[in-house]
Amino acid sequence: MKISQKDVEHVARLARLTIAPEELSALTEQMDAVLGYVDKLNQLDTDGIEPMAHAVPMSNAFREDDIKPSIGIERALQNAPAAGDNCFTVPKVIE
Amino acid sequence: MTFQKLTIQEMRQKLISGQLTSVELTQGCLDRIKATDGQLNAFITVCEEEALAAAAEADQQLAAGNAALLTGIPVAVKDIFNTLDVRTTCASKILDNYVSPYDATTITKLRDQGAIIVGKLNMDEFAMGSSGENSAAGAVRNPWDTERVPGGSSSGSAAAVAAGQVVATLGTDTGGSVRQPASHCGVVGLKPTYGRVSRYGVVAFASSLDQVGPVAGNVEDCALMLGAVAGYDPADSTSVDCPVPDYLENLKAGVSGKKIGLPKEYFIDGLDPDIKKGIDAAIETYRQLGAEIVEVSLPHTDYSVACYYLIAMAEASSNLARYDGVRFGARQDSGDGLNGMYQQTRSAGFGDEVKRRIMLGTYALSSGYYDAYYLKAQKVRTLIRQDFQHVFEQVDMLLTPVAPTPAFKIGEMVNDPLQMYLSDIFTIPTNLAGTCAMSLPCGFSEDGLPVGLQLIGKPFAEAEMLQAAYAFEQATDWHKRAPEL
């Protein structure tokens, strides 16, 4: 096994997901199958090969820091599950 | 009245000459959707009122002699494109109530060319899937056989064109999501070179791989749609500032003297006999059209699925972190604090495949595993791109199958995600390399299912690839067949 149920529970916490107890074993098996498959990349010697982050060569895209029209507060908040005082509202973080 | 046999150019001529109004055309399109979508489920949202209002406006423009490229032509887009004041759900419960506050750049471009957007098309949730089955709005069905999948993730984009619901659509292609459904539905689908089309306002899946692409019933319409949406966009820093050629101008240039490569790794034993038959006939057609056919090698092909899924899942886990129930989305909160709210919202909102990919991506990026998985995959990606660079020194383009089999049955692969991933083997490498590719019809299976042919072009050589596709289409009549619905 590449991955245990305990690992899967840990990853779920990192990903802010809850895995139902009855789904845990099937998910672990499916993840294990995929991780077992991708292991084939280790057949390749990649020493000295540059990792590729972009499909086309590009460097940082800079622009002038000009003020331009944007969608505005009302539009930005229109899909908020909860909002008030021109802000997104979230459950209390600090006691 | 139905108009499903007309091409964009034919519609355009009829609109300009006054034989047809955009309101008639748009109403015909809405009627066709009503008549057929119960069988297909290609649409998530139909914008009837907005479309008819835009059509009336287009008729005024046409009457005034102001016809742009797509004035008055009804089209539809995958439900991954932000469209002002219309829902954009990505076929996910988590975005069920999300209404776009702006237009994606590609949508603005379509509107600037006068296109009428009649609706938003069904898809695999967040573009994750190869079958159109992973949708909170229900599976899309293949117009050629409604017991079968249309392919995915741009399932609705391909099915809608095949069924004559709309003449052209936009989809997105991260690992084959435009080409594979186009192939399974017998239509033309194109993935442009990475950077050719703006991704601004398109919900992100895997940002280094995602690209917007058109689907249409024939090569000329596909070329026209690409021309309408291509180009540099300051709002997308990965779009490339390189001039957009007129894709229609030299479309009839032919393939005489062109060198077409057949990568031997794509012609493996075990290729479905129906696919092999279609591809072999296509190779012969190209030979007769004057192309030189040569065998080439892309030695790292066998590693591309593993490389792709690691990169795509890692990027997806990062991109989908934004669905936390704070700025948008269906919040679930039973009062367990902020982290509890995040977890409940995400667990209730995402479907199984999306969760699986977030989990795998999170694992691949997590402490202690980053080098072994994500970094390793990025290095292998370099090797895969080098393969393409080498063959493009020898040939002008490549010809391959699109999918290893014709469309499979609904439900056949749902419990075996790895098997489903492996079906993307022929389309994935071009996304990793960033080059352009397209799918076009090249035959039918014994069961009457469409078979597609893939052309892979050099980076930013869409025009040359479209010329080769057009030459093939003129020499065959596969694209003229339509499913009975």
Largest sheet of chain B: 11 strands, mixed
State the helical fraction of chain B.
Answer: 25-40%
> Helical region count of chain B?
15
Indicate the mean pLDDT of chain A: 93
Q: How much of the sequence of chain B is in beta strands?
A: 5-15%
Q: What distance separates the N and C termini of chain A?
A: 42 Å
Query: Main beta sheet of chain A, described?
Result: 2 strands, antiparallel
Please tell me the CATH architecture of the domain at 5-43 in chain A by its name.
Answer: Orthogonal Bundle
Please report the two chains with the greatest interface, counting residues with C-beta closer than 8 angstroms to the partner's C-beta: A-B, 49 and 72 residues
Dominant shape of chain A: flat
How would you explain this protein's 3D organization?
The complex is a heterodimer of chains A (95) and B (485). Chain A has a domain at 5-43: Histone, subunit A (Orthogonal Bundle), CATH 1.10.20. Chain A is built from three helices and two strands; from the N terminus they run H-H-H-E-E. Chain A has helices at 5-14, 21-38, 72-77, and strands spanning 83-84, 87-88. In chain A, strands 1-2 form a two-stranded antiparallel sheet. Chain A starts with a helix and ends in a 7-residue tail after the last strand. In chain B, 39% of the residues lie in helices and 13% in strands. Chain B has helices at 8-17, 22-40, 48-63, 105-112, 155-162, 179-185, 219-229, 273-288, 304-319, 337-349, 352-365, 371-394, 417-422, 428-433, 462-475, and strands at residues 43-46, 74-78, 116-121, 168-173, 188-191, 211-216, 259-263, 292-296, 397-401, 436-444, 450-457. In chain B, helix 9 (304-319) crosses helix 11 (352-365). The longest helix of chain B has 24 residues, at 371-394. The chains are: A mainly alpha (95), B alpha/beta (485). At the A-B interface, helix 1 and helix 2 of A face helix 9, helix 10, helix 11, helix 12 and helix 13 of B.
